[in-house]
Design goal:
Chain lengths: ~475, ~500, ~100
């Protein structure tokens, strides 16, 4: 893909986040993914005659939390509205959403795209709405099937300003937003399962132009990587059209991940007229400012704040702080490990970002699935710091813990791996090795300083790595002195 | 004794005193239905077997501490309330075979109190109509004159009550659908404050206007039914969470010093002379009971019809979108694609009036017209509501007294050709729905043709007690509510 | 206010109602008359008047976030005109 430098891409996103409530937004059905079709529905989900929606309190709380995290204005008076259209996955013939008076307006999110300065992305609005069901087509002869399990799943739709200018910025934005909703524990951020979905409005314009170009809305983007690829494809497609003297048409296009292209959507061809009006079955939401303050008081520390604190309190590098605050679970792991080894935040960070993450990645495990508990990793780091074991031994203890479990204390005790720090015992080994290599002593004394490593190695070999390297060095230097 | 001539209150007393059993009472009504319903067409579905079972259970319960004034009372339910495993059609071909798997809150409460459900009554399709002629199941006849309509949309319940086919009936009222047929059939009909009674399980017409209420022989009966119907329902977000007063206890209030407002706009040229005379006589009765009549003005009155016919169809167009032939209800044969499934299913399943209102509602909400129609109507709605609150406040009124309908029962077919003239028959009741106020219609006389005339009492929000007390005092002083259509037709 | 045959057709499409040519004519005439009735509202000054979407001023009640429903698929499918494998069946949808 070659992006034409005479053009700039303008991107705005609509992100649908499924909220992790126990029950659905307007009824008492379970809010769960992956059950057999239509086993999680009730007359409200299926829009039977005469049934009514009743709002789940937690949906409001999560909307407020998300609004606060994105520095938005929380509307104390907000209301639900009906968006009317016919589709089999929308049983009522309308979606309960918010229109004129959404719960959150005017938020923002700071992104740090790789290799670029920090940038502010405006959040136009966040509103609450219901998710639709699913129409199933594949492998069904002459028909489609409707599964309403997903109907009534609470969604927050987050709409950005058209502030994004590249696939890279968009990727950075989505990663940051996903980490925030995960920090808040309002959404699990799983794009493949559809709990965090993104539609992208993409247009191009000549550099310096003040008007936006005609945009295409891209749907069916089920990973951040696909969002980025679709933006790149769409940018080229639109530039090509303009360069060929054609117009970009305002339309909805679907991303085809197999063929790596976007194509126009065929089904809902006719012009939409959603006929929004205030939902008469639900009174307006009137929020008490005290409720918002109470939620603010219980907000978890967010990635940006945690990043700053890790740098300040633990003197971590940008890289380490970034990796360790990428998720709330990661940060928790680090800080629990640190409790067992408080004197050495840098080494704990190295162990987590290096040995642990390396091994987890290799095994395809998440931090929450780590076979090595944070307390154990902390204890291991502390043992190095306190000269109980060497770094080298620690690596084998770590490998043992990863494969067989156990605490470092147990393993070190069982396998007799404690470092020998007793001066007399080490001196005896040193003397033995020196006695065996008189010619090397002579060479060393003649100026071949690198032979010190040879002696250290021999002694470590003889002690199976348990001799304290500091003590060994000290003794050798004294004894080899001319 | 013909048990079917008793008021609900009298029947309750007789049941309680074991002068009659619930089974005897229920059987008496079922027999009367069997005799009269074929001509009247008041019921769409009868549930005789389960009614007798419920009556038997009531007989066991009567005399126990758990008995209520409704235990063993046979009721007719408008076929708009969902009743579990009992066909609920809403007067439409669309739902001709619909078996709800759930029970409306109102019917559930009445059943829990021991009431006996006789069956489901005929109605205008989806409650859209003022004459009961839009029903898929055919028009209902007015027992006072079989060639006339009982009004609508709760025409089946009104006729069932007036003809003595039940001890009490349930209606719903979106623009006058309880009060107008009550007036036209000489019974008492109450539309409570919006939100006083749960809408859960009531098939929606216009959600911000719909409200269920009792249709009864007397005001006292209405109070007894409302007592069990009213109250907050966690399943309806628009139901009001306020305590329910003892309506029966409130009936004994003295009317001395009560201030009754009489709005000039309701007594203009649209009102028939005979109705005017009867209602003026009712005011004399109130004066004689010690109440004061105050002329008032509700200047927004004339805007109610256009306002209503924007808001109600708009909400209806959306509420009726769920009838798509996919999950329940009618489906067209052999749909060739999705759009065909939708368009033919709905064209076949809905009648002309319902389609007309869906079209109207869709139009006023559509892009480019929303502000001119829907938003404007919602603003005027507020002005209409403020008219009432200002009048109640400035004149310190207890109730407002108006006609219920501009004329007495009209002939079947008389207004069918002209939807606008039909819409005008709700001109005195629609305002009350727009403002969300309680209103009750009571019989106050007959015209020269022997057709009942009614008047309406409108109360402050949640003040059903005052309109009930005011209505009850009138019925203690008059005999109109005792007249029966026996031998008419 | 009178509306055109094209508008009536468009509205019928939005509302998913199949209407015949004859019905289109009737609706065009009737809807025009009904909309004519509504013209009078335009003369009412409503600037600054808050639209009233609910009959009574009330605030949103909220439900606890608890699961109270269990699987009732068979009951709900019992009313369906066409169902298959636990799903509602519709003509093939093209996306």
């Amino acid at each position: 893909m070659s992006q034409d430098s005479r053009y700039e891409t303008v991107i705005g996103l609509e992100i649908h986040t499924q909220l992790r409530t126990r029950s659905k937004i307007f009824c008492g059905c379970p809010n769960q993914f992956g059950s057999a079709p239509n086993t999680q529905i009730c007359p409200v989900c299926a829009a039977f005659p005469g049934v009514l929606p009743v709002l789940n309190r937690e949906v409001l709380n999560m909307a407020i939390k998300t609004g606060l995290a994105l520095h938005g204005q929380i509307r104390l008076y907000n209301e639900f509205a009906r968006k009317n259209y016919f589709y089999p996955d929308l049983p009522a013939g309308y979606q309960i959403s918010q229109f004129e008076l959404p719960i959150v307006e005017q938020g923002e999110l700071m992104i740090e795209p790789e290799g670029s300065p920090r940038k502010r992305i405006g959040i136009t609005r966040i509103h609450m709405e219901v998710d639709a069901g699913k129409n199933l087509h594949e492998g069904i002869q002459g028909a489609s099937w409707v599964d309403l399990n997903r109907t009534g799943t609470p969604l927050l739709e987050i709409v950005t300003e058209p502030d994004l200018r590249s696939a890279a910025e968009t990727g950075a934005f989505l990663k940051k937003l996903r980490s925030i909703v995960r920090y808040l524990e309002v959404c699990d951020g799983n794009m493949e399962e559809g709990s965090f979905r993104c539609d992208a409005n993409v247009s191009v314009r000549r550099w310096g132009a003040t008007q936006y170009g005609t945009r295409a809305e891209i749907k069916n983007l089920n990973s951040i990587r696909n969002v980025m690829r679709a933006i790149e494809f769409e940018t080229d497609r639109q530039i090509d059209r303009i360069e060929n003297g054609e117009k970009v048409i305002q339309e909805t296009r679907l991303w085809d991940a197999n063929q790596n292209l976007t194509r126009p959507m065929r089904g809902k061809e006719e012009a939409h007229d959603y006929r929004y009006f205030p939902e008469p079955d639900l009174p307006p939401v009137q929020l008490d400012p005290a409720r918002i303050e109470a939620i603010r008081a219980t907000m978890p520390e967010l990635p940006d704040d945690k990043f700053a604190r890790f740098q300040k309190d633990y003197a971590l590098s940008d890289y380490d702080a970034g990796v360790l605050t990428a998720s709330r679970e990661m940060a928790n792991y680090y800080e629990i490990a640190l409790r067992a080894s408080p004197a050495d935040p840098k080494s704990v960070a190295n162990w987590v970002t290096g040995e642990l993450l390396g091994r987890l990645n290799k095994e395809g495990l998440e931090i929450t699935q780590s076979p090595v508990q944070a307390e154990s990793l902390g204890a291991l780091t502390a043992m190095i710091h306190n000269n109980v074991i060497s770094g080298k031994i620690a690596k084998s203890v770590f490998a043992h813990m990863f494969e067989h479990g156990g605490t470092p204390q147990q393993i070190v005790a069982e396998q007799g791996l404690s470092q020998v720090t007793d001066q007399g015992a080490i001196e005896a080994e040193v003397d033995k090795i020196l006695a065996a290599h008189p010619e090397k002593i002579a060479q060393y004394r003649a100026g071949k300083n690198q032979l010190l490593g040879f002696f250290v190695g021999e002694i470590m070999k003889a002690t199976r790595g348990k001799a304290n390297p500091g003590v060994v060095n000290e003794l050798l230097k004294n004894k080899l002195a001319p | 004794m013909d048990a079917t001539t008793l008021t609900l209150a009298q029947a309750a007393q007789a049941l309680n005193a074991r002068e009659i059993s619930a089974q005897e009472l229920t059987r008496a009504y079922l027999e009367r239905i069997e005799a009269l319903n074929p001509a009247l067409n008041a019921f769409i579905t009868l549930d005789a077997e389960r009614a007798m079972e419920a009556a038997a259970a009531a007989d066991t319960r009567l005399g126990q501490a758990s008995a209520t004034p409704l235990t063993g009372i046979p009721l007719a339910i408008k076929d708009l309330f969902c009743t579990q495993n009992l066909r609920t059609t809403c007067g439409s071909a669309m739902l001709a075979n619909f078996l709800p798997p759930y029970e409306s809150t109102v019917t559930a409460r009445l059943k829990a109190a021991g009431a006996v459900v006789l069956g489901k009554t005929n109605m205008d399709e989806f409650a859209m109509g003022s004459s009961n002629e839009t029903s898929f199941f055919g028009p209902v006849r007015n027992p006072w004159a079989y060639d006339r309509t009982p009004g609508g949309s709760s025409g089946g319940s009104a006729t069932a009550m007036a003809a003595g086919l039940c001890a009490g009936a349930l209606g719903t009222d979106t623009g006058g659908s309880i009060r107008q047929p009550a007036a036209m059939t000489g019974i008492t009909g109450l539309k409570p404050t919006y939100g006083r009674v749960s809408r859960f399980g009531m098939i929606a017409f216009a959600s911000s206007l719909d409200q269920a209420g009792p249709m009864t022989r007397t005001v006292e009966d209405a109070a007894l039914l409302l007592q069990e119907m009213a109250g907050f329902d966690p399943k309806d977000a628009t139901s009001i969470n306020e305590p329910v007063p003892d309506y029966h206890a409130a009936l004994g209030r003295d009317l001395k010093g009560l201030r009754i407002g009489m709005p000039a706009e309701y007594f203009g040229e649209g009102l028939g002379q005979e109705s005017r005379t009867a209602i003026e006589a009712a005011m004399e009765v109130y004066r004689s009971l010690g109440a004061h009549i105050h002329p008032i003005s509700l200047p927004m009155t004339r805007h109610a019809i256009p306002t209503y016919y924007i808001i109600a169809p708009a909400e209806a167009s959306s509420n009726l979108a769920r009838y798509d032939g996919i999950r329940f209800g009618h489906r067209c044969a052999d749909p060739k694609d999705l759009k065909d499934l939708y368009c033919r299913t709905r064209a076949e399943g809905f009648g002309a009036e319902v389609k007309r209102r869906i079209m109207l509602g869709t139009y006023v909400l559509s892009s480019g017209y929303y502000d001119a129609y829907y938003r404007k109507a919602q603003q005027v709605r507020r002005l209409i509501a403020e008219d009432f609150s200002r009048a109640f406040r400035e004149h310190d009124l207890g109730v407002i007294l108006t006609p219920t309908a501009p004329e007495t029962a009209f002939k079947l077919g008389e207004k069918n050709a002209d939807p606008v003239s039909m819409y005008l028959s709700d001109i005195y009741t629609i305002n009350v729905n727009l403002a969300g106020l309680p209103g009750i219609s009571l019989p106050c006389g007959f015209d020269a043709k022997g057709l009942p005339i009614g008047f309406q009492l409108i109360g402050r929000p949640l003040d059903e007690a005052t309109i009930l007390a005011t209505g009850h005092a009138y019925q203690l002083a008059t005999q109109w509510h005792k007249a029966r259509p026996e031998g008419k037709s | 206010m009178s509306i055109t045959v094209e508008t009536v057709r468009h509205v019928a499409t939005l509302a998913r109602l199949e209407i015949s040519a004859e019905e289109t004519g009737i609706y065009t005439e009737q809807l025009s008359r009904i909309l004519g009735l509504m013209e009078q509202l335009q003369s009412i000054p409503t600037e600054g008047v808050a639209p009233m979407s609910h009959a009574v001023a009330m605030t949103m009640p909220e439900r606890d976030d608890t699961v109270t429903n269990t699987n009732q698929r068979d009951t709900l499918l019992a009313n369906a005109p066409d169902s298959e494998e636990g799903c509602f069946r519709v003509p093939k949808i093209i996306e």
